[in-house]
């Protein structure tokens, strides 16, 4: 892989390169959308309602941040788009399952997602539960296929890291800690931990899986894993800020849910200014990890700043 001197970084990158990032994200989102569409074809059989709910939960919306990360990191190692798009689709399916279940009355009880009725409101609770279950298993099925990568070792690595990031030691465990913490004042370290699991692990994996596909050296893989960890933490802080400052129209979901639920957030603990400073610190840490990749990683640098500047 060719390495060049890294481009200068500053928070002005969003203003300077925002259009380029937006174009690249839109282009990759279309590729990911097409991959999901092909992997979840509609059917007229007895499972038609289930497939419809799965397609509803995954198609036609969202930033595709996790899928974009997977494809963009993989491109650093010249991984064919046909392989990285499948991996990106699997990440987006698992993320969609988590959102479908999070919105259920037994969890966050939210009627809106991406400006549309939540899956359980569009269909029904039982169908939403089954759709989430099926999306989770489909995500692993995709990674197990030789179409994703010819090497069984690579596929096992993808699956193992994915399972760790999404299970009790990752996303699901973080959700449990979050639920247990409602109505209690959690210390900052515990809030960091729960969000590192609930949100951060899947974003970290999204960066690392591109390195796994590309069979990166241990040092480069570690750097990309650290990059993903830092932007995952920054992403959650930005979410906490948006939950306090943005409207439901901007978010595409109910605003102010965290405060109403009595959850401990970065904003509650640090204030908006303190939370913004912490997000900026994490972003700078993430960008520093990209130094060996030079200008090839410019869109990943832009993405790191976009994560804390976005309005939804």
Descriptive report:
- The protein has 312 residues and is mostly helical.
- It has one domain (13-307): Farnesyl Diphosphate Synthase (Orthogonal Bundle).
- Helix content is 70%, strand content 1%.
- The protein contains 14 helices and two strands, in the order ααααββαααααααααα.
- It has helices at 13-39, 48-58, 65-75, 81-102, 119-122, 125-144, 152-166, 171-180, 188-213, 218-245, 248-251, 257-260, 266-288, 298-309, and strands at 112-113, 116-117.
- The chain has a two-stranded antiparallel sheet.
- A hairpin with a 2-residue loop joins strand 1 (112-113) and strand 2 (116-117).
- Helix 1 crosses helix 14 and helix 4 runs antiparallel to helix 6 (125-144).
- The longest helix is centred in the last third of the chain and has 28 residues, at 218-245.
- It is globular and about 50 Å long.
- Residues 1-11 have low confidence and may be disordered.
The main sheet orders its strands as 1-2
The helix content, as a percent range, equals: 55-70%
Kindly give the count of domains: 1
Largest sheet, if any? 2 strands, antiparallel
| Helix and strand sequence | HHHHEEHHHHHHHHHH
- What class do helices, strands and sheet pairing give? mainly alpha
CATH topology: Farnesyl Diphosphate Synthase
Q: Going by CATH, what is the homologous superfamily? A: Farnesyl Diphosphate Synthase
Number of strands: 2
Count of helical segments?
14
Query: Nearest-angstrom radius of gyration?
Result: 19 Å
Oligomer: single chain
Strand fraction band? under 5%
Q: Briefly, what CATH class?
A: Mainly Alpha
User: What's the overall geometry?
Assistant: globular
Protein name: Polyprenyl synthetase family protein
Cofactor: Mg(2+)
Pfam family, one: polyprenyl_synt
Organism: Acetobacter garciniae
């Amino acid at each position: 892989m060719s390495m060049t001197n890294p481009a200068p970084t500053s928070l002005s990158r969003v203003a300077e390169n925002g259009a380029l990032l937006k174009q690249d994200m839109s282009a990759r989102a279309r590729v990911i959308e097409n991959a999901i569409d092909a992997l979840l074809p509609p059917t007229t059989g007895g499972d038609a309602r289930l497939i419809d709910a799965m397609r509803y939960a995954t198609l036609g919306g969202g930033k595709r941040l996790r899928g974009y990360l997977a494809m963009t990191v993989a491109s650093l190692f010249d991984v064919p788009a046909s392989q990285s798009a499948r991996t990106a689709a699997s990440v987006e399916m698992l993320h969609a399952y988590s959102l479908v279940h999070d919105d259920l009355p037994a969890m966050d009880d939210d009627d809106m997602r991406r400006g549309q009725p939540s899956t359980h409101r569009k269909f029904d609770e039982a169908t939403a539960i089954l759709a989430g279950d099926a999306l989770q298993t489909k995500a692993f099925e995709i990674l197990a296929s030789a179409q994703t990568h010819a090497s069984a070792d690579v596929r096992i690595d993808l699956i193992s890291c994915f399972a760790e990031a999404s299970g009790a030691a990752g996303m699901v465990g973080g959700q449990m800690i979050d639920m247990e913490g409602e109505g209690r004042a959690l210390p900052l370290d515990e809030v960091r931990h729960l969000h590192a699991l609930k949100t951060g692990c899947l974003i970290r994996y999204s960066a690392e899986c591109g390195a796994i596909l590309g069979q990166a050296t241990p040092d480069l893989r570690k750097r990309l894993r650290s990059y993903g960890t830092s932007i995952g933490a920054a992403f959650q802080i930005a979410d906490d800020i948006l939950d306090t400052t943005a409207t439901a129209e901007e978010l595409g979901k109910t605003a102010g849910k965290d405060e109403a639920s009595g959850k401990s957030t970065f904003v509650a603990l640090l204030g908006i200014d303190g939370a913004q400073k912490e997000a900026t610190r994490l972003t700078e840490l993430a960008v520093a990890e990209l130094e060996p990749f030079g200008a090839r990683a410019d869109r990943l640098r832009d993405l790191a700043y976009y994560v804390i500047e976005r309005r939804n």
